[in-house]
Specification:
160 residues; DNA polymerase, domain 1; 6 helices
């Protein structure tokens, strides 16, 4: 009726189903078994953070900053700054931060939404080639920053 390989696959699927069902039933009876753990995913390349779990998302990221090999020290400091500003903003103590695009370092520029390492380098290169920005709108001359990105940035940047 079934070949040997088909029987093995069926046995594997049935065993997996039984084990999964057993774990699910055991968790319902014993909710402290395998609690939901907070997980922080930090992707260095795009400055993207994703939180999972039931606790405060910002509290979940902080331990990951200091875990061995999670991220570099300088990136940890930059991320700590973002976390602090976000916490302050949530409490209403720090309504918005503003970054002077004429003097900002790469790390400071990367605190802005939609600005990663490559775009920060482009902003700095544009600034060095053309002199300081004369207006906020001039940042749209940098390749990779269009009207949509500018709309998100305009309240967070200043030109001095």
């Amino acid at each position: 009726m079934f070949t040997r390989n088909e029987r093995m696959v069926l046995i594997f699927l049935m065993a997996s189903l039984l084990v999964g069902s057993g774990i699910t039933l055991y968790k319902r009876v014993h909710p402290d078994f395998a609690p939901d753990l907070p997980i922080a995913v930090i992707r260095d390349d795009q400055r993207d953070t994703t939180e999972f779990g039931e606790n405060d998302p910002l509290a979940q990221i902080k331990p990951a900053l200091h875990s061995k090999g999670a991220i570099h020290q300088e990136e940890s400091q930059a991320l700590e700054e973002v976390i602090q500003k976000t916490e302050d903003r949530l409490r209403g103590e720090y309504p918005e931060f503003q970054i002077n695009i004429n003097t900002a370092s790469k790390r400071e520029l990367m605190l802005l939404p939609r600005i990663g390492p490559k775009t920060a380098d482009k902003i700095i290169a544009f600034r060095e080639a053309n002199g300081p920005f004369q207006s906020k709108e001039e940042i749209m001359k940098v390749k990779g920053i269009g009207e949509k990105t500018f709309e998100r940035l305009k309240e967070m940047i200043i030109v001095e």
